[in-house]
Amino acid sequence: MDRAKTKNGILSAEARTDLALEAGERLQNDNAVPEGLRVEKLQCGDGTAEITRVHVESKEAARRMKKPIGTYITIEAPTLAGGDEGYHGKISSLLSRQIRELLPEGEQRELLVVGLGNRAVTADALGPKTIDHLAVNRHILPFYREETRRETFTVLSAIEPGVMAKTGIETAQVVQSIARSLKPDAVLVLDSLAARSVHRLYTTIQISNTGIAPGSGVGNHRNAIDRETLGVPVIAVGIPVVVDAATIVRDALGDSRRQSGERTKRDADVYLEELQNMYVTTKEIDEMTERLSFTLSEAVNALTRRE
Fold first, then answer.
1. Residue closest to 137 by CA, chosen among 307, 291, 300
2. Which residues have CB under 8 Å from 108's CB, separation 6+?
3. pLDDT score recorded for residue 149
4. Measuring CA to CA, which residue among 247, 210, 178, 272 is closest to residue 56?
5. Dist CA 202 CA 263 (whole Å)
6. If exposure means fewest CB atoms within 10 Å of the residue's CB, which of 18, 23, 156, 264 is most exposed?
7. Whole-angstrom Cα distance, residue 152 to residue 149?
8. Dist CA 190 CA 4 (whole Å)
């Protein structure tokens, strides 16, 4: 974690986040919004969710945001963490429409779906678990009747590349090799994300056309999976399931100091130093990961059908 300036007597280590929305909010709070950064907010007609589009359009905006140039779409669904199947169905439909907007144009497209993560670690298992529920059709579509093939909008294939600690191979290399062989029109990458705010855990979905660098949200940068490395458009979809522990403690210490004045800068520095490589989630992570994997998979499965 990068060390930063002291603010209000408390060490301010810049919080790690995968969400462009949060990175943009940080710049807005600091009154430091650069040229080439546009933010659009849209409210769904039925109030199901709020959509924010963050457009990073210049090198300076990309540098300040610490995000590649591109479009980042955020769906904020306040009750997504709940068990209302009808609500999850609405969010799946909304997510599917947002992904369609980023897909290449054409009568039919072949999409390779990549479930990033380690299924042995619950907080990193969202990608692999979503792959389990996909209705892949690449292997059986040739045997369908002609009219069925014509009604298929997206040909789906999927892989779970694992993590380098298990395979000894960079994830990007695995995906690159398969993409070179299958020659899909686009690659859809699914992953668990890190957020700045605990309130965005399980309730926020980010879609981008910039690809992804596995592990970047928790400071474990791997080779990027993007258009430059694969040669085709790469759409990344993720849901935040962890928060930087130091961020939570820093916020709590800041509130405590403002209220009582008893915390010193030295106390805060010691706590933050110890928590720099710790990430936290909620006790419901197993249930949430399983539930959200169905929400994501239904959105992807809907891509196979024409609207």
1. 300
2. 152, 153, 154, 155
3. 66
4. 210
5. 32
6. 264
7. 5
8. 31
Q: CB-based contacts of 168: which residues, under 8 Å, 6+ apart? A: none
Which amino acid, residue 191? D
The dihedral sign for the CA sequence 190, 207, 33, 227? positive
Which candidate, 54, 45, 102, 52, places its Cα nearest to that of 76? 52
Closest listed residue to residue 208, CA positions, set 17, 14, 21 = 21
- Per the listing, tokens 């907010």 go with 41
Joined tokens for residue 9: 């007597």
Instruction: Indicate the length of the chain as a whole number.
Output: 307
Over residues 242-252, mean pLDDT: 75
Work out whether strand 234-244 and strand 186-195 pair parallel, antiparallel, or are unpaired: parallel
Contacts of 277 (CB under 8 A, 6+ apart): 1, 219
Which helix (H) or strand (E) segment holds residue 228: the answer is helix 227-230
Please give the backbone phi and psi of residue 188, each rounded to the nearest 5 degrees, phi first: -110, 120
Helix crossing, 265-274 with 245-260: angle to 10°?
Answer: 160
Distance CA 133, CA 64 (A): 38
Quote the CA–CA distance of 194 and 200 in Å, as a whole number.
9
The reported pTM is: 0.85
